[in-house]
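Exam review. A common question shows you a sequence with its structure tokens and asks you to describe the fold in words. Practice with the pair below. Do the first one on your own.
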Amino acid sequence: MEKPFTMINPLSHVKNVRTVYDKFYQKNVKEVLVQFLDEDPAWIPYETLLSMLSLSIENDYTEWKDL
């Protein structure tokens, strides 16, 4: 039996959104303040968040065990 497809909301970990001007790329960049677990929140580009969530990492490659 196939595992049912579940939708992942990319904004569920987002605490805040801002747009900043990047001098290196000379364009406006949308950044999101994310916090996944108990770590300190961090500002990352929105495109990076979408890329991170699109990757499927096998459980064999994680350093923690499912509890």
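Now try the second one, then compare your answer with the model answer below.
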Amino acid sequence: MKPNQASIYREIERLLEWTIPVADRLPKSVSWRELGGLLVRDLKESLDFVVLAFQTEDRLERLECLNGLVMRMTSVKTTFRLMHRVRRDILSHGQHAQMLDMMNSISDQAGKWLRKTKYLIAEERQAAEQPAVVQPEQKPELRAQAEPRQRTLFDDVEGSR
């Protein structure tokens, strides 16, 4: 699957398209403009992390990309929450709810992908630690010697002599 066909990529892209007009309506002060620029940058970098995670074959590299994605999306969510709390005229309650819906969808998908990758890495490490035991073909008389002998009533008698 191509990265731009994945639902998580499309969701982040949709959130970015939704965010740009919001960032344009921010107050003209330097701090608000900077905040809007960081918001757009974090969303753009989130798209980059998704692309990199899809393109890499190495699971550890994919894990790094997914951790980067989670970090950036946490920053985006925090920034939107701050904007809504400080200036209610920037994001209405409806817009805030719409943003949270998109964020929840993205975080659910990222969380599932992250858990699956961690599981596969742990499974891979466990398989590497436990070498496969291959039983060589043995002659019947050698196999009988290798198998533990069952105890009989006479074992105690033989041991007492």
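Model answer, second protein: The CA atoms of residues 77 and 103 lie 7 Å apart. The domain at 3-129 is CATH 1.20.1440.60 (de novo design (two linked rop proteins)). Full marks require stating both points clearly.
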